[in-house]
Amino acid sequence: MQLLKFFMVAEPQPGTLPIKMHKTTGPKPFILLSSQRTGSAFLEQCLNSNKEIHCSGEILLGYGGTYNKLPPKLFYKHRRFRTLWQALFSGAAFFPIKSIENTWKINPDVKHIGFRLMYNQIKRDFRVKEYIKNLNNVNIIHLQRKNILKQFVSLKLMHNQSKYGRHSAHVTKRPPLVSIKINHKEAIKYIETTLLQRKNSLKLVNHLNILSINYEDMIGSKGLNNDISNKISSFFKINDQSYVSNQVKMNSSNLKNLITNYDELVEVFKKTSYAEWLND
Predict the structure, then answer these.
(1) Contact 44/33 with Cβ under 8 angstroms?
(2) What is the crossing angle of helices 126-133 and 96-104, to 10°?
(3) CA–CA separation, 161 vs 273, rounded Å?
(4) What gap in Å lies between CA 206 and CA 255, rounded to an integer?
(5) Could you read off the pLDDT of 194-213 as tens digits, one per residue?
(6) SS3 at position 89
(7) The pLDDT of residue 247
(8) How many CB atoms lie within 10 A of CB 168?
(9) Residue 69 pLDDT more than 80?
(10) What is the model's pLDDT at position 171?
(11) What is d(CA 268, CA 264) in angstroms, rounded to the nearest whole number?
(12) Does residue 123 surpass a pLDDT of 70?
C-alpha cells in the first residue's frame, strides 16, 4: 500500500496535469463510459469493426492499451489474479494518466481513438477523476443498462462463473442457462451505488459531446442494430456501415429463470421504485 501511495504522489498531481485534448489534427479522442456487465466489451468489438475507429479495452486495468502481454497461464484462468497482474505490470495501477495519454497515440491512422472507462475506476482514483473533469474536445459514448437488477445478476454470475462451468465473461456461443440465489439487500445496495456513480460520472463529463446508448436497445442479430449504428456514425461524422461482433448474450433469459429465490425478491422489490425491473 505504501508503494502504491508513492507512485500516486510521483505522477503529476490534479491541477497540474497537462490536458492535451485541444488538438485539431490526428485521431479525435473518445471515451466509452460505462459500468461492468452493460455490454461495453461487445460495443468495443463493434466499434473496432469500423476501420475508422480504434477502441482499446479497460486500459486502467491493463487491458487493451499499449501493454499487450498476457499473465502466466497459472493466473490467466483466475479473473482477480489476472486483473491484478495486468494492472500492476502494465503500469496502469501506478500511472493511470500516462496509460490514458499513451492510448490516445496508439493508432495514428484512424479518425477516432478511445478506450473503455468504468464508473468505479473514476471513483477510486482522484487523479483519474481530476483528469476526466478537465478534458476538452473529447467525445463520450455513455453506455448504460436500464435494468440494473439484471445487470447485478449478470455480475454475480460472472463472479461465480467457474462454479457454473463458465470460464469467460464474454462468449461467442451461448452457455447453458444457470440460475443463482440473490441477496435482496446486496442487490438494492448495488443498484443505489450504480445510480450514484452514474450520476457523478456524467456530471464530470457534462461539458463534453455525449452520445447515450442503452444496452437494451443496442444489440442486433450480428452486432449493433441499424438505429444505434446510424447514431454512432453520425456522432463520429463517418460513413454509415454495419458494426459487427461475434459475441453473444450470456444470460438472455428473463429474471424469473435466472434467480432461484425470485418470489422472495418480488415481495421486497414491489415496495421499491425498482419493481418494474422484475418483469423484464
Answers:
(1) no
(2) 40
(3) 30
(4) 33
(5) 999 999 999 999 999 999 99
(6) helix
(7) 87
(8) 12
(9) no
(10) 65
(11) 7
(12) yes
